[in-house]
């Protein structure tokens, strides 16, 4: 406790729901777009909803790209925030968007076959064994998803989910972690994951 | 596996939850925040709040209850009613709602759907459709301003065409309220929902008519909807959400169930 937990003010719309979820757990949080505040935090949240193109433009306008690339403490990207952590995203009308490049990887349109997109609702997640972020969370636990783009399963996948085909439900690369689902809207399971992250 | 969703709907007027029969005779059910909290704990997968007077009254409604709900519940929720512009939607989303649902204003100004999609993303744009089966013409007709009986009017749209139109414009989900069935608890309009499912490739939520557990089983099994919305059966305690989910699981409909978590606390 007594940690500095900072939510990066990306200008996206789910910032208050992430903040409220942490406050329900008794965690004091600061929402900031200032370099020094973000760098001084013990834990950093990178939230996001909307499109990769719009979010990256907002981050660039706030001159936060370098700040986010230089962080050494645990960082958790949420939903679009997770997608922004990889190298590129296909979610744009003008070709690939360059993301933050905090880890290798690419965001692609989901190939759901006959299933509907967006992938919206509660789906089961299978974490890799021994993951600290998913401590106490059994395989096949339901989390709330809403997205049409995803990172395929690859070497930085920390947890898998399947919709039409498998995709990354969570990523980890050094201190950078991300979840495609919304822990702030995933009931007890989401609260557990947020608790685990803050306790890292 | 993606679970089918059970979605209690709370009609809101002046910060109170109300329920009418076929859009009339509203009775007060209770205070909004404790009810929202209660439903989240009871196993609801999502909640919808309809501000039922907003669109028809042409006034700016106090929506501060949205952020009070966002503070207490840990499941997704959608707010409907009186959202006429990108700015209106932005305020609701900033207060912590996950989705906004637009009905009459989208009929008046369909470009609003494109704008909402472009600014906030497809995932939070829900289009509510009030559809009435006209027995004389044999057609499903879209109505607007259904929150106020004196202003309710038929539009030029038949329902399937409007469903196609809103998808093209960037809707992320459709809530189809079958007006003939609303509030009478005789079952969802499975026939209509099947017809709409065939032209709808985004999530489709059934609304209107739930009265007993078998109605939910029927609509999931026969119309392949992604979620089922209901109000009075939950408000009046006629159906317990956990029992409903157990019964649906038994007949093979995928449902989110609670898991025993064993982890640490802060």
TrEMBL record, chain A:
Pathway: Amino-acid biosynthesis; L-histidine biosynthesis; L-histidine from 5-phospho-alpha-D-ribose 1-diphosphate: step 5/9. PROSITE patterns: GATASE_TYPE_1 (PS51273). It comes from the Bacteria. The active site is at 79 (nucleophile), 182, 184. Its EC number is 4.3.2.10, 3.5.1.2. It holds the Pfam family GATase. One of its GO terms (molecular function) is lyase activity. It catalyses: 5-[(5-phospho-1-deoxy-D-ribulos-1-ylimino)methylamino]-1-(5-phospho-beta-D-ribosyl)imidazole-4-carboxamide + L-glutamine = D-erythro-1-(imidazol-4-yl)glycerol 3-phosphate + 5-amino-1-(5-phospho-beta-D-ribosyl)imidazole-4-carboxamide + L-glutamate + H(+); L-glutamine + H2O = L-glutamate + NH4(+). Gene3D superfamilies: 3.40.50.880. The keyword Amino-acid biosynthesis applies. Residues 8-198 form the Glutamine amidotransferase domain. The keyword Lyase applies. Keywords: Amino-acid biosynthesis, Cytoplasm, Glutamine amidotransferase, Histidine biosynthesis, Hydrolase, Lyase. Its main location: cytoplasm. It is found in: Cytoplasm. PANTHER family: IMIDAZOLE GLYCEROL PHOSPHATE SYNTHASE SUBUNIT HISH. IGPS catalyzes the conversion of PRFAR and glutamine to IGP, AICAR and glutamate. The HisH subunit catalyzes the hydrolysis of glutamine to glutamate and ammonia as part of the synthesis of IGP and AICAR. The resulting ammonia molecule is channeled to the active site of HisF. Heterodimer of HisH and HisF. This is Imidazole glycerol phosphate synthase subunit HisH. It comes from Alteromonas salexigens. The gene is hisH.
From TrEMBL, chain B:
Pfam families: His_biosynth. It is found in: Cytoplasm. GO terms for molecular function: lyase activity. It is an enzyme of class 4 (lyase). Keywords: Amino-acid biosynthesis, Cytoplasm, Histidine biosynthesis, Lyase. InterPro entries: Aldolase_TIM, His_biosynth, HisF, IGPS_HisA/HisF, RibuloseP-bd_barrel. The active site is at 11, 130. The keyword Signal does not apply. It catalyses: 5-[(5-phospho-1-deoxy-D-ribulos-1-ylimino)methylamino]-1-(5-phospho-beta-D-ribosyl)imidazole-4-carboxamide + L-glutamine = D-erythro-1-(imidazol-4-yl)glycerol 3-phosphate + 5-amino-1-(5-phospho-beta-D-ribosyl)imidazole-4-carboxamide + L-glutamate + H(+). Pathway: Amino-acid biosynthesis; L-histidine biosynthesis; L-histidine from 5-phospho-alpha-D-ribose 1-diphosphate: step 5/9. Its EC number is 4.3.2.10. PANTHER family: IMIDAZOLE GLYCEROL PHOSPHATE SYNTHASE HISHF, IMIDAZOLE GLYCEROL PHOSPHATE SYNTHASE SUBUNIT HISF/H IGP SYNTHASE SUBUNIT HISF/H. HAMAP family: HisF. NCBIfam families: hisF. Heterodimer of HisH and HisF. Belongs to the HisA/HisF family. IGPS catalyzes the conversion of PRFAR and glutamine to IGP, AICAR and glutamate. The HisF subunit catalyzes the cyclization activity that produces IGP and AICAR from PRFAR using the ammonia provided by the HisH subunit. This is Imidazole glycerol phosphate synthase subunit HisF. The gene is hisF.
């Amino acid at each position: 406790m007594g940690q500095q937990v900072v939510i990066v003010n990306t200008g996206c719309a789910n910032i208050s729901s992430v903040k409220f979820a942490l406050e329900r757990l008794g965690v004091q949080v600061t929402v900031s777009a200032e370099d020094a505040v973000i760098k001084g935090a013990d834990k950093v949240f990178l939230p996001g909803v909307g499109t990769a193109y719009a979010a990256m433009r907002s981050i660039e306008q706030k001159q936060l790209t370098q700040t986010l690339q230089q962080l050494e403490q645990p960082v958790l990207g949420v939903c679009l925030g997770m997608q922004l952590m990889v190298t590129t995203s296909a979610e744009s009308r003008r070709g690939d968007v360059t993301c933050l490049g905090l880890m290798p990887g690419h965001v692609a349109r989901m190939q759901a076959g006959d299933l509907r997109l967006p992938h919206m609702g509660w789906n089961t997640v299978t974490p890799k064994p021994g993951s600290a972020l998913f401590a106490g969370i059994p395989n096949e636990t339901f989390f709330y998803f809403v997205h049409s783009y995803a990172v395929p399963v690859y070497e930085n996948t920390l947890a898998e989910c399947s919709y039409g085909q498998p995709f990354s439900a969570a990523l980890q690369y050094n201190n950078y972690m991300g979840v495609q689902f919304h822990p702030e809207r995933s009931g007890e399971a989401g609260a557990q994951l947020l608790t685990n992250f803050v306790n890292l | 596996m993606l679970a089918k969703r059970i979605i209690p709907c709370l009609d809101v007027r002046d910060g109170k939850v109300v329920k009418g029969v076929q859009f009339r005779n509203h009775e007060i059910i209770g205070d909004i925040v404790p009810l929202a909290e209660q439903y989240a704990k009871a196993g609801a997968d999502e909640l919808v709040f309809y501000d039922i007077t907003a669109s028809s009254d042409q006034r700016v409604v106090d929506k501060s209850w949205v952020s009070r709900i966002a503070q207490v519940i840990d499941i997704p929720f959608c707010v409907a009613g009186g959202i006429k512009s990108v700015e209106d939607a932005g305020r609701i989303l900033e207060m912590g709602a996950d989705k906004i649902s637009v009905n009459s204003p989208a009929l008046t100004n369909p470009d609003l759907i494109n704008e909402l999609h472009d600014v906030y993303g497809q995932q939070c744009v829900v289009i509510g459709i009030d559809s009435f089966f006209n027995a004389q013409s044999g057609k499903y007709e879209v109505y607007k301003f259904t929150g106020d009986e004196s202003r309710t009017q038929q539009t030029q749209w038949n329902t399937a065409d409007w469903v196609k139109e809103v998808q093209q414009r960037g809707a992320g989900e459709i809530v189809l309220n079958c007006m003939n069935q609303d509030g009478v608890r005789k079952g969802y309009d499975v026939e209509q929902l099947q017809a709409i499912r065939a032209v709808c490739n985004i999530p489709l939520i059934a609304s209107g008519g739930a009265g007993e557990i078998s109605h939910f089983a029927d609509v999931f099994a026969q119309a392949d909807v992604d979620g089922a919305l209901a109000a009075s059966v939950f408000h009046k305690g006629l159906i317990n959400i956990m029992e409903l989910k157990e019964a649906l699981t038994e007949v093979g409909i995928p449902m989110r169930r609670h898991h025993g978590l064993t982890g640490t606390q802060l």
